[in-house]
Amino acid sequence: MSIIIKSVQELEGCKQQLNKIKVFVCATASGKSALCQQDDRFFDLDKWGAELLHRGVSDFAERTLPKAEEMLKQGKIVINAFHSGFLKYLDENNIPFCTVFAAPDQVQEYVDRMRKRGSDENFIQKFGNTTVEKFAERLQDPRPEFKIILNSGEYVSTYLLKIFDNERS
Hints:
By secondary structure, the protein is α/β, with parallel strands linked by helices. Helices cover 49% and strands 14% of the residues.
């Protein structure tokens, strides 16, 4: 059975258990890159893979799972999008994870953010359609113990910083 968290306020009762989870599977345009820039405890696996691709590395997809393992061993909190290969890796290695995604009525806000930052229009359309289509499936997915549904104007950084805010003290 999964715990569904629909607001930052609902985190309070789950922070201790969530603090033990080191993998967060998140929606694109949810603020994960900004989070990783402001806090070195977090590692954006998507951004790392995109940088490899941008540099012309042809096997960037095959390199992401070993990079995830390396980062987890270093104690990083790994953040990645809903890629089937990554989810399969988590399943096969019995790695607990939390999903963070938007409800269908929030998707336009994420699409607007992607347009604003200059993302490819084909990717934006695919993201929007996939997010709406997969919402019920992600909500029913029995694997993650926790699921966070972002509300309008919320970013994954808000949630993750609140979960891990006492870890450094």
